[in-house]
């Protein structure tokens, strides 16, 4: 999916919600365990219940890889089930030397047909470049993450600036706002305005609302740009909103709350 299509989808749906399919077989409702592929059965119900409210789904590959071949099958069924026209993210946080990175890019873009992959930039340009060489595909590079450990490296000063600022500034030279996004954690309130100033045109994938306590209101007021420029992810707060027979209805209600709030912020941005 290209940028124009993504921006159009956000406008049409009045939503910048990304539903995170971090599907843990230990946490899904027990009645699904008798299905041939319980993880896919869960994801299918969540997708059916939320597909008109979100603009993206993020599949965190860890939750699938840990189940071996069965997990990869659930992942494939899930990504194929997501309606075309919705942005799909493989949250795989890959990063390796160039020829290996090329194989990772082929895995997620060619074999599984995702629109985007999350990429860890620690190994430098040759590890990121292969993800930027596919038409209408995206690398979503870790910029400033939502977790406590972001203090260990990302928020250390390198000369006058934080390491994360140096990373974002450098990585921006490798791609364009048409094929490169950054991960920016919703919990990083003090830094949100600075990150937006650093990368005014890029989309940010923003995890950390819901279970990690980040505020949708804050991220929206501090980091929205003229094209919205945000994909805000919530995983546990949506997919585990309920745990009974009607878990999908509970997930829909949680997603609807996010979407309604987002539509207000989009309106305010247009008005202001
Ligand atoms: O790249 C990510 O998606 C990511 C980056 C980050 O800084 N923080 C973060 O939580 N994530 C992912 O975003 C999701 C957050 O899940 P919830 O906290 O349940 O909404 C998980 O899949 C995390 O792996």
From TrEMBL:
Gene3D superfamilies, per database record: Aldolase class I (3.20.20.70)
Pfam families referenced in this protein's UniProt entry, alphabetically: OMPdecase
Cited PROSITE patterns: OMPDECASE
Orotidine 5'-phosphate decarboxylase domain sequence ranges: 16-251
InterPro entries reported in the protein's UniProt record: Aldolase_TIM (IPR013785), OMPdecase_AS (IPR018089), OMPdecase_type-2 (IPR011995), OMPdeCOase_dom (IPR001754), RibuloseP-bd_barrel (IPR011060)
Reaction catalyzed: orotidine 5'-phosphate + H(+) = UMP + CO2
Keywords: Decarboxylase, Lyase, Pyrimidine biosynthesis
CDD domains: OMP_decarboxylase_like
Pathway the protein contributes to: Pyrimidine metabolism; UMP biosynthesis via de novo pathway; UMP from orotate: step 2/2
One Gene Ontology biological process: 'de novo' UMP biosynthetic process
Known EC number: 4.1.1.23
GO molecular function term, any single one: orotidine-5'-phosphate decarboxylase activity
PANTHER family for this protein: OROTIDINE 5'-PHOSPHATE DECARBOXYLASE
Sequence similarity: Belongs to the OMP decarboxylase family. Type 2 subfamily.
Protein name: Orotidine-5'-phosphate decarboxylase
């Amino acid at each position: 999916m290209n940028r124009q299509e993504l921006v159009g989808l956000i406008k049409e749906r009045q939503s910048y919600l990304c539903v995170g399919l971090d599907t843990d077989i230990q946490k899904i409702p027990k009645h699904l365990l008798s299905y041939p592929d319980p993880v896919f059965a869960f994801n299918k119900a969540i997708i059916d219940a939320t597909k008109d409210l979100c603009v993206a789904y993020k599949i965190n590959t860890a939750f699938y890889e840990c189940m071996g071949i069965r997990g990869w099958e659930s992942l494939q069924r899930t990504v194929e089930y997501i309606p075309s026209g919705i942005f799909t993210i493989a949250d795989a946080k890959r990063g390796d030397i160039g020829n290996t990175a090329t194989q990772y890019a082929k895995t997620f873009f060619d074999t599984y047909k995702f629109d985007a992959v999350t990429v860890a930039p620690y190994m430098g340009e040759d590890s990121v470049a292969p993800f930027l060489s596919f038409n209408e595909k995206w690398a979503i590079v870790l910029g400033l993450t939502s977790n406590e450990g972001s203090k260990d490296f990302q928020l250390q000063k390198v000369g006058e600036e934080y390491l994360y600022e140096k990373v974002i500034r450098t990585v921006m030279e490798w791609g364009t706002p048409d094929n490169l996004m950054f991960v920016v954690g919703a919990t990083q309130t003090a830094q949100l305005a600075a990150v937006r100033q650093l990368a005014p045109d890029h989309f940010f994938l923003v995890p950390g609302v819901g279970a990690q306590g980040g505020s949708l209101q804050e991220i929206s007021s501090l980091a929205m740009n003229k094209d919205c420029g945000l994909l805000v992810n919530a995983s546990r707060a949506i997919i585990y909103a309920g745990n009974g027979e009607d878990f999908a209805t509970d997930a829909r209600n949680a997603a609807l709350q996010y979407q309604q709030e987002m539509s207000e912020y989009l309106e305010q941005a247009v008005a202001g």
